Amino acid sequence: MQKGKGENVRRLLIELKLLATDLKIVTDDDCLFIPLIRRPLNKECEEIRKQVGLLDFGTGTFHTKAKPVTALELLEDKLPPHVLASMPKSLDIVGHVAIVEITSELEPYKALIGQAILAVNRNVRTVLAKASPISTQYRLREFEILVGEDCTETLHNENGCRYLLDVRKVYFSPRLGYEHDRVSRLVNESETVIDMFTGVGPFSILIAKRRSLVKVYAIDVNPDAIRYLEENVRLNRVTGKVIPLLGDCRNIIRMKLRGVADRVIMNLPAQSLEFVDLTCEAIKPIGGIMHLYTFSDEPAPFERLRDEVEGLILSAGRSVKGTLGVRIVKAIAPYRLQVVVDATIV
Question: What is the pLDDT of residue 85?
Fold first, then answer.
């Protein structure tokens, strides 16, 4: 398989539960050899060919991956057992910046924790601790540098795209990488998409990279986000396909984009329900798709949320075709979830 297809194929094999994750991928000149747990079934071969083209399947020798050393392992003899039990199970890595949650119990040991994270993540040069909740109109939070360079502008790679950003100046979540990928694959050629709260453009740019004839209007109220978005449009060579727009999305849509969208993306979980009426105005008279990200305290099947969203759509003079789809994006706290509502509005 050609190297240029490697990341897309790897992700697809993970989705199909075919990738042998304990074995190393082998590279040879311009080709990659990816280990599988078994030979794909006919229907799986069809899906692979549909998404990434023809691949060859055969036999080969692969080596087992070395077990990675974790920050927790490095700290086992340096922290008391009760403190080790409070260590965060995950952290966010954005480019060369790692972001970790430091509880009050971990506070006296935060420098050690930062050093351990730096030691086991070879691409990380700066470790930050969250110092406030997300707030402000721009969805920003304060950070404390635990260790490393005092530089929070970074270049982040995701789904074959590059994003220049500063985590102190713009909102970006690497945990939404799957959603960026999922939504981009749903977009058809020649669609007009509105990305209401675009940030530095991870939805917009990936859509434009994957579809030749789309037009994406990418809106954000944060001047820094639009400044980085404009740079990212150039970096990813999607000039003319992604249109950055600075300002309040209500004003922009009502002045310029009423009734033009085949699809609207609403990634502002704390407030997105307040903009359902605007989405109904933005979608074409013949109908379109809405992807609404919000928070929910109720377990699946999210009946109250479905009813609320459908009621907001009806109040705006539109209706829902079929059933509202609701899927869990991630857990953000005990009994609190971030979810996405996918709806066809007519």
Answer: 86
The answer to whether 166 touches 154, Cβ cutoff 8 Å, is yes
Residues in the chain: 346
Q: Distance from CA of residue 259 to its chain's centroid?
A: 27
> CATH number of 71-151: 3.30.450.40, 3.40.50.300, 3.30.300.110, 3.90.1150.30?
3.30.300.110
| Residue scoring higher pLDDT (32 or 132) | 132
The reported pTM is 0.80
| Residue ranges per structural domain of the chain | 3-52, 71-151, 173-345
Query: Rounded distance, CA 113 to CA 109, Å?
Result: 6
- pLDDT above 70 for 4: no
Helices vs. strands in the chain: H and E counts, helices first:
11, 15
d(CA 19, CA 42): 16
233: number of Cβ within 10 Å: 22
> Measured between alpha carbons, how far is 200 from 219 in angstroms, rounded to an integer?
10
Fold of 173-345: Rossmann fold (3.40.50)
